[in-house]
Amino acid sequence: MIISGALASVGAEGGKMFESRFRNETASIWMDDARCLVRLRRSSHRVERPDEMATAMQTLIDELDRLVPLSVRGKWGLLQDMRDAPLLTDPALEQAVARHAGRLRQGWLRLAVLVRTPVGKLQVRRTTTNEQAAGRDVFDDEIEALNYLTDRA
Questions:
Q1: Average pLDDT, the chain
Q2: Which of 19, 33, 119 is nearest to 68 (CA)?
């Protein structure tokens, strides 16, 4: 099921102040317009093939571009919630993600990647070593991640 365009729902899944703007089997996008925050939440759906991963990543990029264009993205924070995501154990899937990750993460004022485990933290740090570190961090605590994103000092 794909929800796109108009407000889909307001609910606890995306956080108290977040409103659902997009959902498919691999991810959902929630927005808090008042705090200029986007939550990209990866589902537990396992993608099996690199071409499927590339399509899923491009869909997310297209939706993020529609919802928060690059021209205004520098005022917004992105919470990339990966807690439910399956670990990437296939190098071909990892390469498909790497080809799109830079574009997905481009332009945000701050970016916080939220993971469930220390292994998840290690994987994020290992797969994002080529990206600029300023304004980006990895967390296993949602409140810490949100505090990081809303600290505009």
A1: 85
A2: 33
Q: Which residue has the tokens 């705090």?
A: 35
Bridge partners of 77? 37, 110
What residues have CB less than 8 Å from 148, skipping those under 6 apart? 110, 112, 137, 139
77: Cβ–Cβ under 8 A, 6 or more apart, which residues?
35, 36, 37, 38, 108, 109, 110, 111, 112, 149, 150
**Cβ–Cβ < 8 Å for 106, 69:** no
Structure tokens at 54: 């590339």
pLDDT for 6-53, tens place per residue?
333 344 444 468 999 999 999 999 999 999 999 999 999 999 999 999
Beta carbons of 19 and 9 less than 8 angstroms apart:
yes
Is-contact 57 100, C-beta < 8 A?
yes
Pull the structure tokens for residue 44.
């537990």
